[in-house]
Design goal:
This protein is α/β, with parallel strands linked by helices. It folds into two domains: 5-184 and 380-420, Rossmann fold; 204-376, Glycogen Phosphorylase B (Rossmann fold, 3-Layer(aba) Sandwich). It has helices at residues 23-33, 47-50, 74-84, 116-124, 129-138, 150-162, 218-230, 248-260, 278-283, 296-300, 304-311, 323-330, 342-351, 354-376, 383-390, 404-421; strands spanning 5-10, 40-45, 58-62, 65-69, 88-92, 108-112, 144-147, 178-180, 204-209, 236-241, 267-271, 287-289, 316-318, 334-336. Helix 12 (323-330) links the parallel strand 13 (316-318) and strand 14 (334-336). The protein is globular, with a radius of gyration of 23 Å.
Length: 424
């Protein structure tokens, strides 16, 4: 097997030093850990420049990775790629604009993590044309497309058709055009580094991990906890670990909901937790809660926080509407409730209090251990990716003029809208 040099380009925070991470960062970090002993991995991290406005460039060695924190300007990115001389590029599709000045065609892996267009729609009520145009354009810069969700793979196939990319292919229409490379949890189990939660005897510690995001129903959880308190069940502690520095207004809204509750003393808001420290919270919690809104986004999503719960063998209370949550429930690693139903959620929480609850949680935790072991066994699932890395290629279709059709159509749509509004 030839040793290749892979360059990863992303605006996601990678978990070096005391950093946090997000879905695409989590995905790339754990995936390439699995092949870092076979190939050279260099990460061009644009996060510090793009999101934190840090102009200083610096390099960090983390495990088998070399992380170069640099400017997100396309000209700088093009120069860095040229200097690195990679055999293969990897990027989440959202990093497409940063390759605008890259002239040479290098075999490229484009990863589609999360139903981002639907996340935009749920967050803002619309999908900006530029965002849709960017997604369409990403199909024209890649040679190997992949996603972590089996449901999302078919959603992407529809977008692939819409981008006219299929018009340039001479292969049969099949799901293998979008390769399914599963999400992988970390291979090293979490370690308790320090005590972070003060737990009283017979107290149920409930964990809500991850960023505060608009596609989660925090009101459902607060109403469920309110029902518990009204039933006299106050022996719980609910820990929210995370935040959202990119959407501080939404974060403040959730914090205000907690402060305004009459069980505020039972709530803990930790703020951002470094990636390397999150195991402390998982290992000191009894059960996690997944609180998605009942939307198409949830059905198509790949929840990295669910993968983290699997990694920590932490039982999950979930509606089981996304595919990883469904896997947990099907394998009895958690407890199911009806989405957006506080009464249903409160009944599940109440059933986990007391001696019987401890027994149920212990059973679910044992089942989570089995789920974790299975999720690490992805040798067969990685074969398509390994084949591309061993024999990388540039798809001739990337030169087709058809790539400009969807952009022209979107541009025409916007012009018509402006004309109707009297802008032009």
């Amino acid at each position: 097997m030839p040793r290749r040099k892979l360059v990863l380009i992303s605006t996601s925070p990678f978990p070096h030093s005391n950093n946090i991470t997000d879905g695409p960062g989590y995905r790339a970090w754990n995936l390439f850990q699995r092949i870092s002993n076979k190939h050279e991995i260099v990460i061009l991290s644009l996060y510090e420049s793009y999101h934190k406005n840090i102009r200083k460039e610096f390099t960090i060695s983390e495990g088998n990775f070399l992380i170069k924190c640099m400017s997100h300007k396309p000209r700088k990115v093009a120069k860095a790629v040229h200097d690195e001389k990679p055999d293969i590029l990897y990027l989440p599709w959202s990093a497409t604009p940063f390759l605008a000045r890259l002239k040479q065609k290098i075999p490229t892996i484009v990863d589609y993590v999360g139903a981002t267009l639907l996340e935009q729609f749920i967050s803002f009520g619309t999908v900006p044309a530029d965002f849709l145009r960017l997604k369409m354009k990403s199909f024209w810069i890649g040679d190997f497309f992949m996603t972590a969700g089996s449901r999302e793979r078919y959603y992407l196939m529809g977008l692939l058709i819409g981008s006219k990319r299929l018009c340039t292919l001479k292969r049969k229409l099949s799901p293998s055009l979008i390769h399914l490379i599963p999400m992988i949890p970390p291979s090293i189990p979490p370690v308790l580094r320090k005590k972070v939660i003060e737990k009283k005897p017979c107290e149920l510690v409930i964990l809500v991990a991850g960023a505060f995001l608009p596609w989660y129903s925090y009101s459902t959880l607060f109403k469920a906890l309110d029902i518990l308190v009204n039933h006299g069940r106050k022996n719980f502690k609910c820990v929210f670990f995370g935040g959202n520095p990119r959407n501080p207004r939404f974060e403040k809204l959730i914090l205000r909901m907690g402060r305004d509750s009459h069980f505020t003393n039972s709530l803990i808001f930790t703020g951002l937790v470094p990636f390397k420290e999150r195991g402390n919270y998982y290992l000191q919690s009894d059960v996690a809660v997944n609180i998605p809104l009942s939307t198409v986004e949830d059905e198509l999503s790949v929840r990295t926080r669910i993968m983290d719960y699997i990694w920590a063998k932490l039982p999950v209370i979930t509606p089981a509407t996304d595919e990883h949550s469904k896997m947990v429930i099907d394998n009895q690693g958690g407890f199911k409730y009806l989405a957006n139903d506080p009464t249903s959620l409160s009944k599940v929480l109440e059933s986990l209090m007391g001696k019987h609850g401890v027994q149920e949680i212990t059973k679910a935790r044992r089942n989570m251990e089995g789920i974790y072991e299975k999720s690490l066994d992805i040798t067969n699932a990685l074969k398509p990716l390994e084949m591309f890395i061993n024999e990388p290629y540039v798809d001739p279709a990337r030169s087709s003029p058809r790539q400009f059709l969807p952009e022209l159509l979107l541009w025409g749509r916007d012009v018509l809208r402006w004309l109707k509004r009297g802008v032009v």
